Amino acid sequence: MAGAVSDRRTLPARKGRDTAAAKISEFAPTKRKQASYTATASASKKSKSNAGSGKRGWPPKSATVKAVTPTDVVVNGDASPTESKTPSTEKPSASAEDLDFSLAPSSHTFDGLLFDFDGTIIDSTDAIVKHWHKLAKELNVDPEVILATSHGRRSVDTLQLYDPSKANWEYVSHIEGLIPKEFGQDAVEIPGARNTLVRLEDLGVPWAIVTSGTNALVSGWIDVLKLAQPKNLVVAEDVQNGKPDPQCYLLGREKLDLPTTARCLVIEDAPSGVKAGKAAGFKVLGLATTHRVEQLVDAGADWIVRDMRSLRVERWDSETGKVEIRVEQGLKI
User: Fold this and answer.
1) Residue 94: what pLDDT?
2) Given this model, what pLDDT does residue 301 score?
3) Long-range contacts for 16-25 (Cβ within 8 Å, ≥24 apart)?
4) In this structure, what is the dihedral angle of CA atoms 149, 150, 156, 162, given to the nearest 10 degrees?
5) Can you tell me the distance from the alpha carbon of 238 to that of 128, in angstroms, rounded to the nearest whole number?
6) Interhelix angle 169-183/215-225, nearest 10 degrees
7) Strands, DSSP E only, in 180-235?
8) How many CB atoms within 10 Å of residue 311?
9) DSSP code for 58
10) So which residues are the catalytic ones?
11) How far is Cα 241 from Cα 238, in angstroms, rounded to an integer?
12) 141, 144, 143, 135: which is closest to 162 by C-alpha?
């Protein structure tokens, strides 16, 4: 995001701003976070331009580390204003490079796996930033303020703050359906995600995608990136309340035809999603792909890893209906 904004900011009274200013002034990111965001987005952009082979790659180590540095703002924002705001008195945190991801490997059994999508299976940060910048012009709202609180949050809920007339599923599905078409080249896979989904399909393990995005958005990205098609999908339109409400993950379990006593593993990158998984009564594996590690810890993640390469699907027992997974290179909390 270009430019910096103060922690407490009064927006000029003009269309879209005068009605929303009171609601969003406390959401505005700090100057330090704005600078971090700019560097993160730049690193991500450079990494893609240097991919070279034409295949979708992942940013080099320097860019990846920068994306998860605990002192950085989340480039897409976050569903909870209190999670994205960092007080000026906060003590500096160690970078992700300094964190200890050497937790001893551990194996666990579950009845099914529930994956968030953006930040867990793919990273569409650059595409989403471009999308909100484009839409912000129509709304006459500062895109930086929208981006500070949008990640992990349904677009219909975000739009409700700025233009309630656009907070409907017909409009949201239309604009989100355009994102993969217009910015398809700006999304990359989270390392290890494709192999994990293929493994689950090969074994016949029950799994579902549970996302704050619309069906049009998720289906569009799956088509563009040629990912495994989920037989079970929970999207923004399916629930009355978005994350951190647990309704979406409870519906995910239901779609897998699992009983209420079933043990499910939620894989999430956003604090709001981690909270939703925990509120549903599930174990949560947090991925340090888009948010500060402290946020995932505070949200209650049971394990934190760098990306999907640390989740190993060991075996599936069709008789007992249990899948054994292995968590490797977890963060020592």
Assistant:
1) 52
2) 98
3) 16/139, 16/140, 16/141, 16/162, 16/163, 17/140, 17/141, 17/142, 19/162, 20/141, 20/161, 20/162, 23/161, 24/145, 24/149, 24/161
4) 50
5) 21
6) 20
7) 188-189, 207-210, 233-234
8) 23
9) -
10) 116, 118
11) 9
12) 141
For 40, other C-beta atoms within 10 Å of its C-beta total 22
Cα(149)–Cα(207) distance, integer angstroms? 28
pTM to 2 decimals? Answer: 0.72
Contacts of the segment 90-99: beta carbons below 8 A, 24+ positions apart: 93/69, 93/292, 93/293, 93/294, 94/70, 95/65, 95/69, 95/70, 95/71, 96/65, 96/68, 96/69, 96/70, 96/288, 96/293, 96/306, 97/65, 99/70, 99/293, 99/331
**Which residue type does 197 have?**
L
Q: Which two tokens stand for residue 237?
A: 């339109």
Which neighbouring-strand residues pair with 330?
103
Query: Is residue 246's pLDDT more than 60?
Result: yes
Mean pLDDT computed over every residue of the chain: 79
pLDDT band at 113 (very low <50, low <70, confident <90, very high): very high
Beta strands in the chain (DSSP E): 106-110, 112-115, 122-123, 188-189, 207-210, 233-234, 264-268, 283-287, 303-305, 311-317, 322-327
Count of C-beta atoms within a 10 Å radius of residue 47: 20
Structure tokens, 19 = 């009605």
